[in-house]
Amino acid sequence: MNSAPAAPLIEFQGITKTYGQGQAAFQALSGVDLSIQQGEFLAVMGPSGSGKSTAMNILGCLDTPSTGTYLFQGVHVEDLDRNQRALLRRHYLGFVFQGFNLLARTSAQENVELPLLYRGESPAARHQAALDALALVGLSGWEHHTPAELSGGQQQRVAIARAIVTRPLVLLADEPTGNLDSKRSHEIMELLVRLNQEQGITVLMVTHEPDMATYASRIVHFVDGQVASDDAQEARPC
Amino acid sequence: MLMNALLLALREIRRNLMRSFLTILGIVIGVAAVITMVTLGNGATRMVAEQISSLGSNLLIMRPGQRLGPGRDEAGAPKFRVADAEAIKSQVSALQAVAPVVGSSVTLVAGNENWSSTVSGTTNAYFITGNWKLAAGRQFSDEDEKVGRAVCVIGNTVRDKLFGHQNPLGAELRIKNFSCEIIGLLASKGQGAMGMDQDDVVVIPLLTAQRRLTGNQDVATLMISMQDGADTSRVMAQIRQLMRERRKLAENDDDNFNLMDTKQIAQALSGTIGTMTALLGAVAAVSLLVGGIGIMNIMLVSVTERTREIGIRLAIGALEHEVLLQFLIEAVALSALGGVVGILLALLTCLGLSALMHMPFMFDPGINLLAFAFSAAIGVVFGYMPARRAASLDPIEALRHE
Ligand SMILES: Nc1ncnc2c1ncn2[C@@H]1O[C@H](COP(=O)(O)OP(=O)(O)OP(=O)(O)O)[C@@H](O)[C@H]1O
Ligand SMILES: [Mg+2]
Question: For residue A20, what is the domain's CATH number?
Fold first, then answer.
């Protein structure tokens, strides 16, 4: 980090996360150091249970580390209170969950509009932005369908649309292509690359598929709650 | 922010129509039951009070037997005589009128029409004690009373049933086996309590009734009206003393007659009705409670789903108090809607039942407010409390909730 050309956007220093207590305690993350620059496209890989989602949740300010330091734009996130972390999520982060987490019985469009609503944007602006985001993920015409009326892949794309509709500084995606066929997966990856390159959105993505990881400019491997390897790579051209 | 929360809350209500409906229903039933019971109870109490006061103020009623009401042991007790009425009138001070009354249920016939009613044999004093005014015609003359002429004064209902809108004065009315001439028409008092029609009466001279209907000289009831401002307990004590002497009761004999003042009757009756109202109110309160438990159930059952919902909202950047405001508005809106619908339902029911039972409709703002506040509190507490717990979790914990 001494040699970093600019202050990193995100910095993990010795982050640990322990679930449970006493006998049942389980350390999901055991000392993670990670430094991410603005504009990177980072793929996180690793075996199941290696702590990828745990790390993503902490990165996304959805969860708090047990110990360690998390700097976001130089701010100590672990010192922020609940509301400050919520505002950080609101203004800088977009999160795609491994399990979608869409609001039930709520149309795709309303789901996508929700983050804008909390940002206090006007109804017209919300409406247009939601339609645009849904079009970006190839869901034009599905605006009024509720999650129950959408396939897994479509729900996943709604979740992606909801994460990108605010044009966040950082997009965190936990297996965004986990439920998609390979054609759709490549489309989504191309979308992420476009967001990364054209809008400068920093993308952090968990994936199991080496094929998807080739779109990233950097691959971090997790094993047993630690970073096993961290390599920059030539991103695959779209 | 308030607008957003309002929008979100209304969306949520619309989205979960069934849940919203059940919540509202629970409140509606509880509120409507309590208000209906209490309002009807108040109406009944008021009705009794009105009924009593329509008997005339300052009125005492004396009957043979020890006590008034069901199961009164009238059998052995000697009846009164006209002389008793005269003695009371002349020997007790501060009295306005004393009317000896005998009553009988009879079938009345006039022309082709007939009608079942009650005939009271009494004196002109009855018109004073009963607060009756004449709409037309005249009272009994001394002659009428002395020789027991076949004349009668009829109430408005009897006129309606037998003569329609025709003038009944001078017409013949057959009472059982004798005919009498209608000499007077009573001014209408209107419908009494419980649909009892006060205007359904025929009044004939006492002697006429004794000769032609009862066949003896007994007097069943004495109606005694006091002068305004008379000391009721003193008057009653005097009458009681006089009657004990006249009936030759020994020092330690019980009274074999019963003297009651209308206030006492009113108190006795409204006491009973008050108990009934309290009982019904208790039943209604239970239904409010059951409604509340229903709401609680619905709210708690939906907690899992709602906890995840809260997790999602928090995860995409909602602040804790924004989420809570939304849930609070939702709970308040549902409870208030339920409360308002419940009150409207109760008022409609009360209006209908009051009309049906000829009771006055007594709007009681207190109970409306109380029922509304209680249901609103239940709705808000059980709609809001689970949300408060969920919103205090880390978003990821709320999302993991199962
Ligand atoms: N809430 C929790 N309580 C206890 N243990 C947990 C909890 N969440 C995760 N873990 C444990 O922490 C470890 C890491 O979990 P995590 O979800 O980060 O794995 P992952 O790398 O995302 O796996 P996958 O690829 O299957 O999604 C796992 O062993 C898991 O059992
Ligand atoms: Mg995972």
Answer: 3.40.50.300
